[in-house]
Amino acid sequence: MKLRNQLKAALRSLAKNKMRTFLTMLGIIIGVASVIAMLAIGQGSKESIQKQIANLGTNLLTVFPSASMTGGVRMEAGSSVKLTMDDYKALTSRCPAVMYSTPTVRTSGQLIAGSQNWRTTVWGVYPDYFNIRNLDVDKGAVFTLNDDRAANKVCVIGQTVNKYLFGEGQDPTGRMIRINKIPFQVVGLIATKGQNAWGQDQDDIVIAPFNTVQVRMLTIAYIQSIMISATSEKMIPEATDEITQVLKERHRLGPSEDPDFSIRSQADIASTATATSSILTALLASIASISLLVGGIGIMNIMLVSVTERTREIGIRMGVGARGRDVLLQFLIEALMISLIGGLLGVGLGILASGIIASLMSWPVTITLQSIILSFLFSTAIGIFFGWYPARKAASLNPIDALRYE
Amino acid sequence: MKETIISVKHLVKIYKMGDLEVHALRGISLEIHKSDFVAIMGKSGSGKSTFMNIAGCLDVPTKGEYLLDGVDVGKLNKDQLAHLRNKKIGFVFQSFNLLSRTSALENVELPLMYNSKITSKEMRERSLNALESVGLADRFHHLPSQLSGGEQQRVAIARALVNDPVVILADEPTGNLDTRTSVEVMGIFQQLNTRGITVIIVTHEPDIAAYTNRNVTFRDGRILKDFNVEKPRNAAAELLTIPVLTEEETI
């Protein structure tokens, strides 16, 4: 039988039971649409995470002291060994792969300005911190190393802090705030940075000179962590090696001994975050494809019913000379048509649904051509796979029995 | 001597039902020639339907030889049998077996659809011709449900005719029809037969068999009688004498 006639016959028999055909198709439509929407959400979040991590600066390294171990019980990170100012100085003088570096301490502080108050994290750092984190100053200026040496009570605040203490858009420079009852002068306002990949507000921050926070607020002698930016992204492994070597030497650890500190790079975090979101995408897509699978079973079910209902027709067709493969093709084409048309409608619905999700929930959504092709091919494969068995059943009917079938 | 269309020798068909063997045909030998009009008669269980299935290439014999237009059917596989049905045989069934929700024309076109050598234009032309030869040319677009039983059977005959078969096989073609319509249908067969088409019908009614030229009676899987009808009834002439029932009379 010619393909054109086959298609015509298939369309006609599908049109005969419009409601049934539509409901069967609906399974595929929903399956394909949800696969596309899930992939779009996954891809969108992956891209936005990657963008934000790049924004943090990918050549960033952070050195933490390790957790101590007493009798096999590990304590909190930084619980015994401390990083000291001498460690930091050794790093800056002996690691050529390090471009910027700063010791850091942080504490949380209750901020009061006039009648307003706000609680946030206060970082004590060197001015280099601004280079490491790609921070720009909107108004005023960054404090200087002289401020640090003198432990001056000055600070730079983020947009969120400014909003709650002085009001959005206000220029805070020169004004006084009290942090844990210690008066500080605001010297600068950081440009808006937005949320980071983990949903943290990066504008909710107060940055003060290292010495000021270490001595005046925390009254400690050690460094909580050291932040470093390597000269380039490629230099990260080299910088890591240099730091490891210098710190091991200073902490009197042999080359084979475990270090009592850890170095975390932004690239690690980036790849972890990307991998996490890839897993999430795969998970979402596989859940969605289960519905596509169920849709396929729906096709098989309805095709089996159709074969039984049309046993007589199959008998007539075979009687006038249809071969097994003609009948097979006829039913396969019908199944394929359901899944193809369903797939097309599903792609449309999927794009629509992604758009609605994007606008209603303001999630980042990216539809890739790949995901459309993938889900469309998948639905076609399902049509063939689940259409095969009923079609095979129809083709293997004995014409005499089929003609006699009531 | 006329050309032999169907030649069977010692045809045996045994159905296996579990351990039980049913001997449907116990050795049939028969020759049917071109332009024959044969009635196969017999009670149910006599093997006449089994014979028709084999003659129609729907089934293959257990033993014996069957030559259809010179082709040894016993050696063919399923696809080859389908091809043979498509090319050489036209079927007419008791229950018409038309595709519902498919127009008369498309029903007639069906056998040609499975012949890839025929163009759509040719398909349409030949189908219209076939419908015309059964007197239904003007109703080609009607659905089977819009046609009477007699008309449906005529569409089925047109379908059997359209592929220009060497033989038309009709299984109780008048079984579902009233007397007048039966005569009409037999008239069409007679008319086709005079055009040189070989027709074999299966019937258990001697009245219907009387329109044919040759009667073969089956009994218990064997041929009981085989004789030529001296003076076949003439359907066309009889039709004039049967009054057409008007609507009031039917009620």
What features would you describe in this structure?
Chain A contains 13 helices and twelve strands. By secondary structure, chain A is α+β, with helices and mostly antiparallel strands. Chain A has two domains: 183 residues, no CATH class; 178 residues, no CATH class. Chain A has a six-stranded mixed barrel with strand order 4-5-10-7-9-8. In chain A, strands 2-3 form a two-stranded antiparallel ribbon. Chain A is elongated and about 105 Å long. In chain A, 43% of the residues are buried. The mean pLDDT of chain A is 87. Chain B has a single domain, classed as P-loop containing nucleotide triphosphate hydrolases (Rossmann fold, 3-Layer(aba) Sandwich). Chain B is 35% helix and 27% strand. Chain B contains nine helices and ten strands. In chain B, the strands form two sheets. Chain B has a six-stranded mixed sheet with strand order 6-7-8-3-9-10, sandwiched between helices. A four-stranded antiparallel sheet of chain B has the order 2-1-4-5, with helices on one face. In chain B, strand 4 and strand 5 form a beta hairpin. The N and C termini of chain B lie far apart (53 Å). Classes of the chains: A alpha+beta (406), B alpha/beta (251). Chains A and B meet through helix 1, helix 10, helix 11 and helix 13 of A and helix 2 and helix 3 of B.
Features:
heterodimer, A: 406 residues, alpha+beta, 2 domains, six-stranded mixed beta barrel, two-stranded antiparallel ribbon, B: 251 residues, alpha/beta, Rossmann fold, four-stranded antiparallel sheet, 9 helices, globular
Summarize this, please?
The complex is a heterodimer of chains A (406) and B (251). Chain A has helices at 3-16, 18-56, 85-94, 128-132, 145-149, 159-165, 210-218, 236-250, 266-309, 311-319, 324-361, 369-395, 399-404, and strands at 60-65, 67-70, 73-77, 98-113, 116-125, 137-140, 154-157, 176-179, 182-190, 205-209, 225-230, 261-265.
